[in-house]
Design goal:
CATH topology of the largest domain: Serine Threonine Protein Phosphatase 5, Tetratricopeptide repeat
CATH class of the largest domain: Mainly Alpha
Distance between the termini: 50 Å
Pfam family, one: TPR_19
Helix content: over 70%
Radius of gyration: 15 Å
Protein name: Tetratricopeptide repeat protein
InterPro entries: TPR-like_helical_dom_sf (IPR011990)
CATH architecture of the largest domain: Alpha Horseshoe
Largest sheet: none
Shape: elongated
Length: 126
């Protein structure tokens, strides 16, 4: 197994719109290289893009546990939880990402979840 070649193929598949194909190639790489954050993040994004939200969440939680300052991992974890309808769990990750880095996507996701929670639960204004 040539991990580098498989990673390159997985990146190509992901960028070509085949997240399932990318995930199939990335899973054994993450198994072989569990501390490789770039591979784990690409696998999380492949899972997210193919609606395998549980898999995405697992990979992203591993990333934020390893590096709590990874704003992008917090953002994607928040988006994954949002997509799963777990808005209260998403909110702290989205807030943290937006606080760590000013980015339009971060602000939009945070606003969307805050709006949703504000409409569904008037007590969730903290």
């Amino acid at each position: 197994m040539d991990l580098l070649e498989d990673y390159r193929k997985a990146t190509f598949y992901f960028e070509s719109g085949d997240p399932l194909g990318a995930a199939r190639l990335l899973e054994p790489i993450v198994e072989a290289e569990p501390h490789n954050s770039a591979v784990r993040l690409l696998l999380a994004r492949a899972y997210f893009n193919s609606a395998q939200l549980s898999g995405a969440e697992t990979q992203l939680r591993e990333l934020v546990e390893h590096d709590p300052s990874d704003h992008y991992a917090h953002h994607v974890l928040g988006r994954t939880l949002e997509r799963a309808g777990r808005f209260r769990e998403a909110l702290p990750h989205l807030r943290l990402a937006a606080a760590m880095k000013q980015h339009a996507d971060y602000a939009e996701a945070l606003h969307r979840v805050e709006e949703w929670l504000g409409k569904s639960d008037p007590l969730e204004k903290s």
